[in-house]
Amino acid sequence: MNTEKAPVDWPVQQIAAQAGTTCRTLRHHHTIGLLTPSRTASNGYLHYNQAALVRLQRILLLRELGLGLPAIAAVLSAETSVPDALRRHVAWWGLDTTQKQAWKDSVASLNNDWITASTSGVTPDSPQAQELARRYVQWLRSIPGTLATAPGGDVRSYVLGLAEMYVADGRFGANYGRAGGAGLVRGALVIFAERGL
Q1: What are the Cα distances from residue 138, in Å, to 123, 134, 145, 169?
Q2: Reduced to 3 states, what is the DSSP secondary structure of residue 144?
């Protein structure tokens, strides 16, 4: 007779309520592969175990700091272990309110500057676009847990992969003023990476 206990998990409604989010958001995270439930019950409800809750904490923290879903996915895919993730999580919660707001403001400013450049007809190889690419890479290097901050991480491949993702999926391009903006971001990052990463 097997005396092993089944892993504990909780239904999506309970997790959403406790995390201060919605069931719809958690389902969306599941749909895009950002947060996989531990199981789906016979009634169709998603359930999450302890490991999923740790991942959800990271998602919510990074979202609170202003990261979009593509950047969050990139951060989480670069993590090698739960202890590393938790150390980074604690370090980020160590930011005071002013530091968090400054970080959010810098992300918003960068996104707005990309949109302005796109609507102004800036080309990817222009000095203005290359300065935005430099700021973007600097921003990536400020996110704990990405390949841009990992010792020996392949920053060039990481940047190029993100650049392609922005044009491959229209949801991500929306952050930069739709397809034209995403194309500018991609082009500028590719040139920047080829020149200096």
Answers
A1: 20, 6, 14, 23
A2: coil
Per-residue model confidence as pLDDT tens digits over 8-54: 899 999 999 988 999 999 999 999 889 999 999 999 899 999 889 88
* Bridge partners of residue 39, in order along the sequence: 47
- 46, 16 Cβ separation under 8 angstroms: no
Q: What is the pTM of this model?
A: 0.65
What gap in Å lies between CA 67 and CA 182, rounded to an integer?
16
Nearest in space to 89 (alpha carbons), one of 61, 65, 66: 61
Please name which of 191, 142, 144 lies closest in space to residue 163, comparing C-alpha atoms: 191
Q: Does the CA dihedral 28-30-31-32 come out positive or negative?
A: positive
For residue 50, give Cα distances in angstroms to 16, 71, 123: 14, 23, 47
